[in-house]
Amino acid sequence: MSDIQSIRTQALERLEHLSTLEDAQTWEADYLGPKGAVKLFQRSLGSLSAEERPAAGRAANDLSRELTEAFAPILERLQAESLTAGMASDSIDVTLPGRTPTVGAAHPINAMIDELIEIFAHMGFQSVFGPEVETGRYNFDLLNIPADHPARDVWDTMIVQAPNAEIIMRTHTSPMQARTMERMEPPVRVIVPGKAYRFEAQDASHEWQFTQLEGLMVDKDVRLSDLKGVLQEMARQLFGPERKVRFRCDFFPFVEPGVDFSVDCAVCDGKGCRVCKYTGWLEMGGAGMVHPNVLRGVGYDPKVYSGFAFGLGIERIIMMKYGVNDIRAFQANDLRFLERFAAAGA
Amino acid sequence: MKAPLSWLKDMVSIEITAEELAARMTMAGLEAEKIEHLGAEWGDKVYVAEVLNVTQHPDADRLVLADIQAGEHRLTVVTGAPNIATGQKVVLALAGARLVDAYADEPGKMKTLKPGKIRGIMSEGMVCSEKELGMSDEHEGILVLPDDAPVGTLLQHYLGDTVIEFEITPNLVHAFSVRGLAGEAGAILNEPVRELAVASMDGVPVQENLVRIDAPQLCSRYIGVIIDGVQVEPSPAWLAGRLAAAGVRPINNLVDITNYVMLEIGQPLHAFDLRNVAGERIIVRTATDGEQMETLDHTMRTFTAADLLITDAEKPVAVAGVMGGVNSEVLDDTTSILLESANFDMVSVRQTGRRLKLRTDALARFERGLDPNLSWNAAMRAVQLVLDVCPDATVRCYADEYPVKKAPINISLPFVKIEKVLGMAIDAATVVNVLSRLGFQPVISGETLSVTVPTNRSDVTLSEDVIEEVARIVGYDNLPATMPIGETPIVERDAMFLLERAVRESLVAAGAFEGRSYVTVSESAQQTFAGVTRESTENHLVRLINPLNDAQPVLRTSLLPRLIDAVAENLKHEKTVRLFEIGHAFFGTTPDELPDEPSHLAFAYAGYREPFNRFAPQVRKLNTEQAAAQELDYFDVKGALEVALERVGATDLTYARSEHPALHPGRTASVKVKGEHIGTIGEVRPDLAKELGVGENRLVVAEIDLARVHQLLGGQAKMQISVDHFLPVEQDFAFLVDKSVPAADVEQALRRNAGPLLTDIVLFDVFEGKQIGADKKSLAYRLTFTAPDRALTDAELEKQRVKIQKGVKALVGGELRA
Ligand SMILES: [Zn+2]
């Protein structure tokens, strides 16, 4: 019995002084493990007399329970301390740069087209796409631009070699007006994003290859005020809910009445700044009510149907929205430019 | 069209500033592009002055002392001007004035006037020449102003002007003149327009045979007026000044008057020297093929039967509506003229101008379709000005050939249509008022608006045109914004666009940047990458007649040349370039038909795979071989291509070694969908890559015909996406095969023998080395098996393993390595 007393005394005393998880593991092995003192004592019970044995066995079990219970909180404390210490040694400079995943970016023009497609889809407009090389018939004739009228000079045309036909690079996305109406019956609500080409010298605000978005709506009872409403909705989605659209009279052969439309400058709230050249307005494009000759040309009855059409320059919108000051940047493929739009998210 | 404000104010009262006028005209469809303040640079130092006295300089024969006064300023000026005289009204510049340096080599160079001693006498100011005032190059003498010039006023208030430059849209002919713009301003400001002073032909004899029109379909009217007793000399200052302000160079009084009236009224005029009009008569006829005449620009012109000529009894004297002939031009000693005011067919004039490659101010007006009723007023205005400018001139006779008078048209519309088109109601009184201000004659009876259109408004032919006239004067500003009523069509999405967008999104996520290139390329660039997607022969090329850059006349059949240029440019400042582009390529079909325009996807990659930072291998510290392993190569583009195409459902992509003259023979493959060639992937030959500007870098490219991919996948069922709940089991296999066996074949053999439960296959190691034999390679694969309905047993797996082992050996001779 003195044995078990001394085991207990020694164990409890050592328990008091455990300071590391390793010490604790050693202690546990020394007393509670399969080769620990308690186990050894239990194994030695056989050498005791039958009278002594039950009491000694009980004492051994009590001791085992007592030590286990005493050990548990200490082990828990030491484990917690060890974890804390481990994490402390595993600490980092949290300000070091992170691992950057390699992320690219869509071209800003395509990102903007996506945005516009979504805006117009909410208003029931479907996106259609057409050829970039066109016939004079679709690019001009069906748009009420006769061959021998000075109106045709407005578009400086790039001409494709063709022995007996007028084949050109489309000067606008408007040819898709006629192509769409030939294919569909009213009601028509479409937008046409795409490239267009003009024989025009390049500078910071002129490109010979550029991107347009055409819009066309034909139905019964379409009004010029509907055009203003739709464009205003677009402007608000693009530039914020405060934006206003301004119409002024202008001439395009395929619309009548014709409109040039501007949006009040989001940079200065229309007060006038460098971006809007101190006018408070940013010119967006041309628009108007589809000319009766255009409707007639595709077999729509202008007495029954009316419609509006508009065209806007995608590059110009991006230039306004992100302060790009040279239109040539869009086709320079310079990563220093393209990378900016990875962050912008367009 | 430049319109001096003073000229506009001759005809209409304008109480607002030029800037306000410009803004209001712009809103109404007459876009003011620019406002110029002429004479503003003279500031408050340049005055209208009087010469009180002129005395000889005591020490210099060629200099005089002039006593000059301008209001409170009285001073002595030393000058060498030969034409200065007592009593003249002149221009006095005070010290500090900014003037053109008449002696500087650089034209238009400005200097600031400083007082100085000239031959011992203090000169405190200067009497100016036209050149010093920036009005012309005239520097022979000082500018002498008319006697009624207001002495003491600032010159800018007397000779200065404000010029508004308008862009006149091509539909408008009536506004292509100062009178027309004044009419527009009057309508906008609700001010009446004052009529111009014109001559009268009362008592002047009509000479019937003066004019004969042989081509009435091309010349609807011809007025000829003979004026005797003219004297050709420089125009008076007011006339020359106005022309200069409007951007027309003064020549002599008679030519200037024709130009003045053209600018003022919009009707081009021409003056012939009557001496050289044979038979003193005009015949308007078409040319005979090959007929010739030298035009005023001293070019011999040859005509065709389609060209309309003005001829005399013997020869052509002018190209109708385009330019006069040298043979009959007004000269310094001309004393009698024949003045022409005529109307020519718009299409004919335009076509002749095109054929002769001639564009003149006259043509620019005729080609818009001038009103023949304008001709008389213009002729009378010009006659009046000739009589004003040449005191001895008299009108001898005239003729007015006008067989079919142009009558105004009438447009009727339901009044309610205005609101139906605009979405805004305008009351009847306003509509009538606005149309009347614009020169229309509107009548409302019952529900109908009936409008008589003046003959100079050939742009107004439809009810929509009338509605625009009302709206632009009432102001588009007042238009409400409404949303369309009526049913919203179902939005269908374009499948090709969705495919392109999905490809774009996956490539962006894979770290690539999307480029956008010009569609034109040079012949040689086109040649270099011809045939990467489909065969492209000379017949397939689409060429431009007028490319912006003559060296790049061909529409691309491949996106690679431009994209590679971009890689080369970017490598000057980037370590990694991953570019792709989605866009049309152009393949000619048959002549006179539109080309085929498939959408292509192209890649061009070069540089290091990882960005230079603390995580990436420090390239600077690596040896050559290790650094090379960090370069983007064939497999980077192949992986990106697979990500993109698998995203759109092309899961059965296959590759076969192929060749292309521009590409590395050992690192090039044909890409196939469903066994069909859709494009090429490969590394550009090192020698060519260097030539293309990418230096020693590997340049990896690929180009895919997306339109073909779309066709091949067309109608394919949507992918079934389900998640298996039983855990997958992975099994590794390593096969020893001959080096020549493509990995794709081994993979195919594995797939064939792996059974239906195979869900994934990854090649995770390729090993070559002496240990396994010089002609062998080891390929290690991890296969994943998943059953949808049960956990797989070891027995099942072992059975499959044996099958794979035998199958691969049979198909590609691969030995399973232990
Ligand atoms: Zn602004």
Question: What's this entry about, in short?
Answer:
The complex is a heterodimer of chains A (346) and B (818). With 346 residues, chain A is α+β, with helices and mostly antiparallel strands.
Description:
- The complex is a heterodimer of chains A (346) and B (818).
- Chain A is an alpha+beta fold.
- Chain A has two domains: 2-90, no CATH class; 108-344, 2-Layer Sandwich (BirA Bifunctional Protein, domain 2).
- Chain A has twelve helices and ten strands.
- The mean pLDDT of chain A is 91.
- By secondary structure, chain B is an alpha+beta fold.
- Helices cover 26% and strands 28% of the residues of chain B.
- Chain B contains 21 helices and 40 strands.
- In chain B, the strands form eleven sheets. Chain B has a seven-stranded mixed beta sheet, with helices on both faces.
- In chain B, strand 33 and strand 34 form a beta hairpin.
- In chain B, helix 20 (743-753) crosses helix 21 (794-812).
- The longest helix of chain B has 19 residues, at 794-812.
- Chain B is elongated.
- In chain B, 41% of the residues are buried.
- Chains A and B meet through helix 5, strand 1, strand 2, strand 3 and strand 5 of A and helix 7, helix 10, helix 12, helix 13 and strand 28 of B.
- The complex binds zinc ion.
- The site of zinc ion has 8 residues of chain A, from loops.
Class inferred from helices and paired strands of chain B: alpha+beta
Task: Report the total helices of chain B.
Answer: 21
What percent of residues of chain B adopt helix (DSSP H or I)?
25-40%
- Terminal Cα separation of chain A, in Å? 84 Å
Question: SSE layout and pairings?
Answer:
The complex is a heterodimer of chains A (346) and B (818).
Chain A: H1 2-16, H2 21-31, H3 37-43, H4 52-89, H5 108-121, E1 126-127, E2 133-135, H6 136-139, E3 159-160, E4 167-169, H7 175-183, E5 188-197, E6 209-219, H8 224-239, E7 245-249, E8 255-264, E9 281-290, H9 292-297, E10 306-313, H10 314-322, H11 335-338, H12 340-344
Parallel strand pairs in A: 1-5
Antiparallel strand pairs in A: 2-4, 3-4, 5-6, 6-10, 7-8, 8-9, 9-10
Helix pairs in contact in A: 1-4, 2-4, 3-4, 5-8, 5-10
Chain B: E1 2-4, H1 5-11, H2 18-27, E2 31-38, E3 46-56, E4 64-70, E5 73-79, E6 89-94, E7 98-100, E8 110-112, E9 116-118, E10 121-123, E11 125-127, E12 144-145, H3 155-158, E13 161-167, H4 178-189, E14 211-213, E15 219-228, H5 237-245, H6 253-265, E16 269-273, E17 282-286, E18 292-295, E19 299-302, E20 308-311, E21 316-319, E22 323-324, E23 337-344, H7 346-356, H8 361-366, H9 374-389, E24 394-401, E25 409-414, H10 417-422, H11 428-437, E26 441-445, E27 448-453, H12 463-474, H13 495-509, E28 513-514, E29 520-521, H14 523-528, E30 554-555, H15 560-570, E31 576-584, E32 599-607, H16 624-629, H17 634-647, E33 653-657, E34 663-673, E35 676-684, H18 686-691, E36 700-705, H19 706-713, E37 729-738, H20 743-753, E38 758-767, E39 776-785, H21 794-812, E40 815-816
Parallel strand pairs in B: 14-17, 28-31
Antiparallel strand pairs in B: 1-13, 2-13, 3-4, 3-6, 4-5, 6-11, 6-12, 7-8, 9-10, 15-23, 15-24, 16-23, 17-20, 18-19, 20-21, 21-22, 25-27, 26-27, 29-30, 31-32, 32-36, 33-34, 34-35, 35-36, 37-39, 37-40, 38-39
Helix pairs in contact in B: 1-4, 5-6, 6-9, 11-12, 13-17, 20-21
The complex binds zinc ion (ZN).
Zinc ion is lined by residues 265, 267-268, 272-273, 275-276, 280 of chain A.
